[in-house]
Design a protein that fits this description.
By secondary structure, the protein is an all-alpha fold. The chain folds into 2 domains: 123 residues, no CATH class; 91 residues, no CATH class. It contains 8 helices and no strands. The two termini are 15 Å apart.
C-alpha cells in the first residue's frame, strides 16, 4: 500500500512539475517578446524603470521555472533525494520572490495611472520628431490603436510645435484618421485634421483604448499567476512527501 502511495505521489509530482515547466516556458517566451518586440512597445517599457525591471524579472522567473520544472520531473521519475531537496528549496525561494513582486506591484501601481502617463507625455513628447525614441514610440502607439494622447488631443495643447511647424498648437499627425491604421496608411484628410477639424481626428485617449483592449488579458494574466502559485505550493508539498517516502 505504501509503495502504491509513493508511486502515486511520484507521478503527481511529475505532473505538477510538468505544468511548472510549461508555465516557465510561457513566461520565458513572453519576457523575450516584451524585450525584443520590434513593434516599438519595448521603448515604452525601457522609458519606464518599473516596467523595464518587471520585464527582466519576468524573463528571469520564466527561465528559473523552466529549469526547475525540468529538474523536478527528473527528480520525481528517478526518485533522487538530492534533486528533490534542491527543487524544494529553490522553488520556495521563487515562491517567496513572486509574492514579494506581487506586493511591490500593488504598492507601486500608482506609476501606471493615467496621471503618470499624462505627465510623462507632456514632459518628453516632441511631436513628429521621429529621431526621438519616446516620441516615435508614442506615435506608433497612437497610429496602431487609432487614439490620441493619454486622455485625448487636449494633452498636446501645452506641448510646443517643432520649429518648422506653421500650425500653432497643432494636433500631431499620429492623431489624424487614416484609411489603414499603420504608418503607411493614407490620411483621410490631413490638412483638416491638423487645422482642428474633429471629425478627421482620433479623439479617444490611448489610456482608455489600450486598457479596454488588454482588460481581458490582464484578468487572464492574474488568474494564470494565481494558478502558478497554487501549482508551486502543491509541488513543494509533493516534493517533501516524496523526499520523506524514498528509502
Amino acid at each position: 500500500m505504501e509503495g502504491d502511495c509513493l508511486s502515486c505521489m511520484k507521478y503527481l509530482m511529475f505532473l505538477f512539475n510538468f505544468f511548472i515547466f510549461l508555465g516557465g516556458a510561457c513566461l520565458l517566451g513572453l519576457g523575450i517578446w516584451v524585450i525584443v518586440d520590434p513593434t516599438g512597445f519595448r521603448e515604452i517599457v525601457a522609458a519606464n524603470p518599473l516596467l523595464f525591471t518587471g520585464a527582466y524579472i519576468m524573463l528571469a522567473m520564466g527561465a528559473m521555472l523552466f529549469l526547475l520544472g525540468f529538474l523536478g520531473c527528473c527528480g520525481a521519475i528517478r526518485e533522487n533525494k538530492c534533486l528533490l531537496l534542491f527543487f524544494f528549496m529553490f522553488i520556495l525561494l521563487i515562491f517567496l520572490a513572486e509574492l514579494s513582486a506581487a506586493i511591490l506591484a500593488f504598492i507601486f501601481r500608482e506609476n501606471l495611472t493615467r496621471e503618470f502617463f499624462t505627465k510623462e507625455l507632456k514632459k518628453h513628447y516632441q511631436r513628429n520628431n521621429d529621431t526621438d525614441v519616446f516620441s516615435s514610440t508614442w506615435n506608433s502607439v497612437m497610429i496602431t490603436f487609432a487614439c490620441c494622447g493619454v486622455n485625448g488631443p487636449e494633452d498636446f495643447e501645452a506641448i510646443p510645435n517643432l520649429p518648422y511647424s506653421s500650425l500653432e498648437k497643432a494636433t500631431p499627425e499620429a492623431c489624424c484618421q487614416r484609411e489603414l491604421q499603420s504608418r503607411e496608411g493614407m490620411f483621410v484628410n490631413k490638412e483638416a485634421c491638423l487645422s482642428g477639424v474633429e471629425r478627421f481626428q482620433n479623439r479617444q485617449g490611448c489610456y482608455t483604448v489600450i486598457l479596454n483592449s488588454f482588460e481581458t488579458y490582464v484578468y487572464l494574466a492574474g488568474a494564470l499567476a494565481i494558478g502558478v502559485l497554487a501549482i508551486e505550493l502543491f509541488a513543494m508539498i509533493f516534493a517533501m512527501c516524496l523526499f520523506r517516502g524514498i528509502q
